[in-house]
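1st attempt posting a full record on here, be nice pls
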Amino acid sequence: MPGAVMRSGKWRIKPSGKLPIFLRFMINSAFTKENMEQADIHTSMPNRTYLNHMMYWRQEEYDPFEAEIIGHAQADDGWFEKYCDRELKQDEHLYKQGLVYKKTDWSEKTNEEIAGILEPLLQEYRVLAGPWYAQYPLDEYFESTIETKLSEYISASDPDFRKCVLIFTDPKQMTEVSEERWKLAQIAKDFFSANEDLDNLSAEATAKIDVHLDRFAYINRGLATSKPYDFDDIVDRLKEMKHQVSEGKKIDDLIYDASEQKVADEYAWALDKIKPRPDFQHIIDQAKLHSYVRNRRVEAFFNADYGASFMYAEIAKRAHFNPDWIMEVSIPEMFGALAGKPLPDEKEMNARFHNYAMLARDSETTLITDPVKIKELEKEYSVDNTAVNSIQGRVACIGGIITGRAKICMDKKEINKVLRGDILVAQFTTPDFVPAMEKAVAIVADQGGLSSHAAIVSRELGVPCVIATMNGTRIIHDGDLLEVNAATGLVKILERS
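the predicted structure (as tokens):
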């Protein structure tokens, strides 16, 4: 079963998006034996190559890691529950750190004090980032196991079969990303009932949005890939909801669709339909816990990074450096700035913005911006981009047959391309993609399991979604006319742009 990690000869390959250089350095340094053993994982993956938005491992390093994780899941030896408990405790601590950092007056801190705060924060990131990769084999294990078990109750050809699989991989409780949309829909109802002019809001309405932003603005920042939600972002999303209402959608339905109640109702329906035996119920419980853990971990990282962004901005200010570029420096360069060393000049930064590669060897990273050296790497590392007119993926949100123009979004900076009626095509989605997901008529993702962000949020939005296409962002071009079959997972290119 295809998942987030592709298998191609000696390589194990994962679409990797446009994370900033600073955080890539952190992630690359996470896979030490010491860090992984804190998560009770005894196989580390300290060697990797990042090239053209793809991450490469050699099979002899990745496969034992995957086998260790799946082995624990199959043996049901208690490792999974301990893993989840530990991750959630670390998540909550990291999340709260973000709240503290957001309120810290960094201008009062000395460089030495900032360095003394940054280093333990990065180590906390590393301890969580290494085991993060366990989510990919766990995704595959739970999906395949649920499908196998479910086939003992209903036929795989039953129209409700896939629906049950999706329901059984929903998070065990509401994530903060889900809560944000649910509360925004409630705000929309209040505004519509009061006939608020969204272009000239009352003081009371403005205050409601400010409260919403204080709690949820961090979601849109992603992992330093965008700016946090601002006032105009929220108003634009309210206007999108108003548009949906004008086209016949009921505001109460928008609220219900984003609610925990809908998830509970669907879960009760699925349980009543098959009445699972205890062994299957146990697997379902584990799958739902896994889904919640992987999504909550993202929120913890996002909130901590948002809080730390005020620290990074202060470092940029002291270094007389463009604050919009500060996350594209390496970790050694960041600490160098705190020690009085200059940050990279404009020529070097522009080279990084154009393209870069990374070699991680024994968890130490080398950044490569020389185009000649990148071309040399491309001779060894490659992904099959054979021209085809159809791609097979897996359905993450069931729907009919949808047509629309493809909008390729490699990161949050590109989502403004997505207009109503378009099909969002991405390597994967993160919470900062939600404004585009709310407009799209369908979503197509290179990677992801049924507990991935694209899968969970598409179901909350009711937007048909196909995941695990592997090379969708490379085969599909911006503006191609697509036909997405959200019942079979087949994506056809009807017309090239």
